[in-house]
Amino acid sequence: MQDGFMNIWLYRLGWTYVLFIVFLLLAPVLYIVYISFNEYTFGARIYEFTTDWYTLILADKILVASLKWTGFLAVGVMATAVPMGLLAAKFYKSTRHKVAFVTLMLSPLFVPADIMGSALLIYFKNINHAVEAFGAFLGVTWFHGFLQLGFTTALIGQIIYTVPYAFIVILITMSRYRDQQTEAARGCGANAWQAFWQVEFPQIKVGVFSSLAFVTILSFNEATRTALLKGGFDTFPNVLVSQMLNIGMSGESYAMAGIMAVVSMVFIGSIIIITLIRARGIERKFQPKAEPNPIN
Amino acid sequence: MAEPFSSTNTEPPAVEVVGLGKNYGPVKALDSVNLSIAQGGYTVLLGPSGGGKTTLLRLLGGFIRPTAGKILLHGRDVSGLPPNQRPTTMVFQSYALFPHMNVEKNVGYGLKIQKKTKTDIAASVERILSLVGLEGYNKRMPHELSGGQQQRVQLARSLVLERDILLLDEPLAALDAKLRKDMCIELKRIQEKIGITFVHVTHNQEEAMTIADRIAIIADGKIVEEGSPREIYERPQRKFTAAFVGENNLIEGKVINVNGDGLTMDAGFAELAAITKKQASVGSEIAISIRSELIRILDGNDGQAEGVQKIPATYLEEVYLGLTTMHLVRLPNGVEVAVRRISDDDADFGGTAGQEIIVGWNREDAGVHTD
Ligand SMILES: Nc1ncnc2c1ncn2[C@@H]1O[C@H](COP(=O)(O)OP(=O)(O)OP(=O)(O)O)[C@@H](O)[C@H]1O
Ligand SMILES: [Mg+2]
Q1: Looking at the complex, does the CB of residue B90 fall below 8 Å from at least one CB of chain A?
Q2: Is the pLDDT of residue A291 over 50?
């Protein structure tokens, strides 16, 4: 941290600056959480602590259902985007065209959310028509509603959005892995899967878990693509956004925003804490032990 | 020394490669190599950086696929098999221990794959750790070991599998000179004790000389020359080997006369006679080599002796190297020549810079290289 040359006050100033920025970024969120516990919500003169707004959410069938759908989407994204990111990261290490590959992998991030969402919307509709026409031509009904807007299409939209993040997060840990270890394992008789599962995976699992957490948060916070692709059901962010746009903010909306902010921060916070603890553990391991016996 | 390569029965060689080639895109890393390695010896693949040593070793281990040719291990064609289906195992230069497993788990890894019982594994691990001198290190993590200890663990992890062929790619390159020397002798001892075939890659001559029963020189994707360490050092056949191994002085010229037991070469400033059985036609370009310890600065009496080749030279400087001292002299054609002497015998030897002297060597000490 300190090299001994740095002015201690400059160093403290640096930290003050960082904390100030973090506070500045988080202040609005904290304010919303604060308001969500006020009986009279935003704009009122009086502040009276209450958890009523949260109770109200849990009593609201639509909101609970939307929470459930959000959860399903998150699980679906974890189960697909993370393995896809892992495969992509493995492929990245073996390809010679690294810059081209990364550019392609990250390209979905450069498309604005609403453009990507509407593009997919049109795309799915057309595929659906085509497949249904094909089904009609064959005289079967199997393809009916094949890619009708719904959970599957919303999930695909979210996967496209989250895979680049999953890829990058895993790639960062994977880049520290030495391929000789896989070769050494193969040389010891392991097949490709054993070498991956027993030697490589334990060393990159931090990245895999981080990427699981990351895509969960992303899918929890995403509204635009899902709004366009979801068809019949609503996710938590969708409900929140439509309430804000149609009715304006209510005590309930503040509580919803509070839930989303807190869940995200708890997730991120635990990742950071776990990473720090692990780093400490590794540091401790590096302290040399006494020689059990001298080498001959 | 015993001759480990003269097998009396007809068992196939441990390693036989035929027309083996490997291209990385446009780069020809290995070019139609033929090589045969008998069972139970210590073979070193020696050569300059980028010569293709690692490529050849990794082809033997099955880590890369050949572009051309065949690989037979104990007579069986393994060209298409992955590493885990070959009778080989490999020791890498560094970073190859599994960092999340302790010494015991690292060494026992291959046995666990084979589904051996816990007690069997523990017993084998114990035995092999004592063979490599690491008793009591079972619970250490790789990062708690020194470089030399890490390499011993790697060696143990390979040896415990009792495969027939052990491949080692610069296993000692990350160690300091003293430790490298000790480990060399130990590797040799272990190989002699267990008797399997070791194929060891290095670019370090001293390491190769210390450890090898047999050396194959590899450069530019080709096997240049093969032989025992003594043959390679004392009687290099190819000009490349002479230049690469030891400290040889090379003098180039044209053949002007050939007779029964030798030839005469015109070096431009002098006619040099050499003894050789090699065929060389008059007019062809050749080189002769003289090792630095066999070339002498002549005084009056020495110059009269029978069979000594003499040439004029200019004394340049003296370089003290501890055990030996090197004297640099320049031949009339501008080539610098090294004359090496044991320092203790060297008290009143030498000259002053710019002094005109005579250097020479016994004719039978010069090597003749036609290619
Ligand atoms: N993966 C690769 N892609 C492209 N070229 C390669 C690759 N690996 C090796 N080469 C090239 O093949 C040639 C032989 O390389 P190799 O690693 O076998 O040499 P080496 O004799 O082991 O050298 P060193 O002593 O430096 O380890 C070199 O020219 C090298 O640049
Ligand atoms: Mg190499």
Answers
A1: yes
A2: no
